[in-house]
Amino acid sequence: MLVIWMFVYSTAITNDSASYLHTFGVTEGLLSDSPFYGLVLICILVAISSRGEKLLFKISTGMVLTKLLVVAALGVSMVGMWHLYNVGSLPPLGLLMKNAIITLPFTLTSILFIQTLSPMVISYRSREKSIEVARHKALRAMNIAFGILLCHRLFLRRVVHAGDGT
């Protein structure tokens, strides 16, 4: 299962980064049309990760904090568009089932998110002498990660999409 998500991740990072560069005028065409772009991009990411876990965690921390700050800034900037009257309302059962089926892949991705944290568990175990301390730190980090993921999904589901009936 983890191998499948590695391919999904590499495809997503290739297409998203090429689309981002094209959208903001850095490139004239989509770089993802070239097979070498994906290869070079993945090689760069592997080179960064091979430099050591400390560098990888520093880069990842910066990226995650940037994303959280952007989401928080967008949330604050859209306060005027929030509709609190939608928080307690449920859509009709048919629409609820349709949306549940549509969001099933995203839900499964969120559940499988724990597998991407396994390198962190390995890192804690290699650094800590006591397995109990390593287990406690890894569990705490996973709980924080799932808490952030849950808050992020609930925020997007209830506040941002509240006005469109989904």
Describe the structure.
This protein is mainly α. It has 2 domains: 1-50, no CATH class; 53-166, no CATH class. It has 7 helices and no strands. Helix 1 crosses helix 2. The longest helix is centred in the C-terminal third of the chain and has 30 residues, at 131-160. The chain is globular. The model has no long low-confidence stretch (mean pLDDT 78).
SSE blueprint and pairings:
Layout: H1 2-23, H2 35-50, H3 53-77, H4 93-102, H5 104-116, H6 118-127, H7 131-160
Helix pairs in contact: 1-2, 6-7
Concise synopsis of the structure shown:
InterPro entries: Amino_acid_transport_2. The chain has seven helices and no strands.
Radius of gyration: 19 Å
> What's the rounded overall pLDDT mean?
78
Strand content: under 5%
What kind of sheet is the major sheet? none
Q: Helix count, per DSSP?
A: 7
- Give the % helix: over 70%
Give the termini distance in whole angstroms: 30 Å
Q: What spatial form do the alpha-carbon principal axes imply?
A: globular
Low-confidence parts, pLDDT < 50 over ≥5 residues? none
Helix/strand-derived category reads: mainly alpha
Following the backbone from N to C, one meets helices and strands in this order, namely HHHHHHH
Number of strands: 0
Total domains: 2
